[in-house]
Amino acid sequence: MPGSTSKAVLFAAFVGLLAAVSGAAYAQTYPGGPVKLIVPVPAGGVTDTMARIIAQRLTEAWGHPVVVDNRPGGNYAVGAQAVAR
């Protein structure tokens, strides 16, 4: 088939590039500092309680503090805007 060799070469080059880039990504550590977990509901509810449990477990697993930030209001829009920023 004409052109199948060039496709194979392009595919091999793409795989090689992907392997090189992914190696650099593994070298980075995450998280590099404190993490903010934004919860779009008021404090004290079931969702807030679950977020705080998850934050505690992530703090233990990552070794970095995970802070729960409640942003209620606007039918979850306030929390969504905080995440977007």
Structural class assignment: mainly alpha
Oligomerization: single chain
The share of residues in extended strands comes to 5-15%
From the spread of the alpha carbons, the general shape counts as elongated
Query: Strand order within the widest sheet?
Result: 1-2
Description:
The chain is mainly alpha-helical. Helix content is 58%, strand content 12%. It has three helices and two strands. The protein has helices at residues 4-27, 46-62, 77-84; strands spanning 35-39, 66-70. The chain has a two-stranded parallel sheet with strand order 1-2. Strand 1 (35-39), helix 2 (46-62) and strand 2 form a beta-alpha-beta unit. The longest helix is centred in the N-terminal third of the chain and has 24 residues, at 4-27. It is elongated and about 60 Å long. The relative contact order is 0.14.
Short note summarizing the structure:
The chain is mostly helical and 85 residues long.
Characteristic key phrases:
two-stranded parallel sheet; elongated; 3 helices; mainly alpha
Topology:
Layout: H1 4-27, E1 35-39, H2 46-62, E2 66-70, H3 77-84
